[in-house]
Write a structure and sequence with these properties.
By secondary structure, the chain is α/β, with parallel strands linked by helices. The protein contains ten helices and ten strands. The strands form three sheets. Strands 3, 4, 5, 8, 9 and 10 form a six-stranded parallel sheet that branches. It is elongated and about 125 Å long. The termini are far apart. Bound molecules: zinc ion. Zinc ion binds near residues 145, 194, 198 and 235.
Length: about 350
């Protein structure tokens, strides 16, 4: 073998080993990638599963809350089959049909003399609202922001139909208003609190400010009626967003001080500034209420809301025709519609 041939062989061998090295590195990189991807997938999949499970748990907790409140209100009952298995049963619509009859009976027993009217109407309203066994559709007429010049006209309509409403009142200490707080109760309706000032900037500026405001309206109602009222509605609702105070802190205060609060699931649209007729308002309320077993209807008792008063008879008649029975809201009322649920606050 000549020297020239020897040199050629050596460089060919070198070339081969460089190629081998490159192939080896490529293989290593490929394996590295496979290992990294496998590890990544193995980490990400459990994380995704955890997130899905947490969401499912949260949804189930909400379902359990709803079922418990439905059970408390008698919408569902626990039953046992022949094999001894327990299960929950939704009460049938035949209960609603029975109720239409009951409403008619109430209307027919209307007394004749004025004096008797007041006494008997109050009794009838009280009897119908404390009947916890009723499992059909319930309507809660609620009026915010009173008392006002419209409180009397609203009470007149309610007494004509012998149904109660709940008035979420604000703080007014003139003589007429002080009498109206009492009259609401005396005529068979319910009083609840809606803040003293109704000024969002004041109420929601801090927890202390909120406590001060609710204490003022609580004490004013106590002074006017002798009643320790602890049913509340947040101005704007419990889902109101503020930049200054955490609503959950306010809910916590209510919870620890024996207050209950309620929002609404039906709105009469009487606070939107839209110029709608009484018939349109009644249509809005009734069509929204039809999808609810417990319809909490938001209306306003305030100067300038005369359309609400005019719509009220139609609302009551149409709801009655659809099998609704009327109830007031007090601390024993369940389930309460809450946009931010009390159970979510520790
Ligand atoms: Zn209000």
């Amino acid at each position: 073998m000549s020297i020239e041939q020897g040199r050629n062989n050596t460089s060919a061998n070198k070339q081969l080993s460089v190629n081998d090295e490159l192939l080896r590195r490529k293989r290593i990189n490929k394996y590295k990638k496979i290992i990294i991807w496998t590890c990544g997938v193995l980490i990400i999949i459990p994380i995704i599963m955890c997130i899905i499970l947490m969401v499912r748990i949260h949804m189930l907790e909400n379902d359990i809350d709803d079922l418990l409140s439905m059970k408390e209100s008698g919408e569902i009952v626990a039953e046992m089959d022949s094999a001894g298995n327990r299960y929950l049963v939704l009460r049938s619509d035949s209960d609603n049909d029975n109720n239409i009859g009951q409403n008619e009976t109430v209307a027919k027993t209307k007394p004749t003399t004025a004096a008797e009217t007041t006494i008997q109407e109050t009794t009838t309203v009280a009897e119908t609202t404390t009947a916890d066994t009723y499992t059909g559709k319930r309507a809660y007429l609620t009026f915010d922001d009173g008392p006002s010049v419209n409180t009397e006209p609203i009470l007149e309509v309610l007494n004509r139909y012998q149904v109660p409403a709940t008035f979420f009142v604000i703080g007014k200490n003139d003589d007429v208003s002080m009498k109206l707080y009492k009259e609401i109760i005396d005529r068979g309706s319910y009083l609840a609190l809606h803040s003293f000032t109704h000024d969002y900037k004041t109420i929601y500026s801090s927890v202390d400010s909120f406590v001060n405001d609710i204490t003022r309206i609580h004490d004013l109602v106590l002074q006017a009626t002798g009643k320790d009222v602890r049913m509340f509605r947040f101005p704007g609702g419990s889902a109101t967003t503020t930049n200054t105070v955490d609503m959950k802190q306010l809910i916590k205060y209510l919870k620890t001080n024996g207050y209950k609060y309620v929002d609404w699931n039906v709105s009469s649209e009487d606070a939107t500034g839209k110029n709608i007729s009484a018939a349109e308002m009644a249509n809005i309320v009734v069509s929204e209420a039809l999808s609810c077993n417990h319809a909490y209807i938001l209306m306003h008792d305030a100067r300038g809301k005369e359309t609400t008063v005019q719509a009220l008879p139609q609302i009551i008649e149409q709801l009655q025709a659809n099998g609704f029975k009327f109830y007031g809201v007090d601390n024993s009322t369940q389930p309460l519609i809450q946009q931010v649920k009390e159970s979510t606050v520790q």
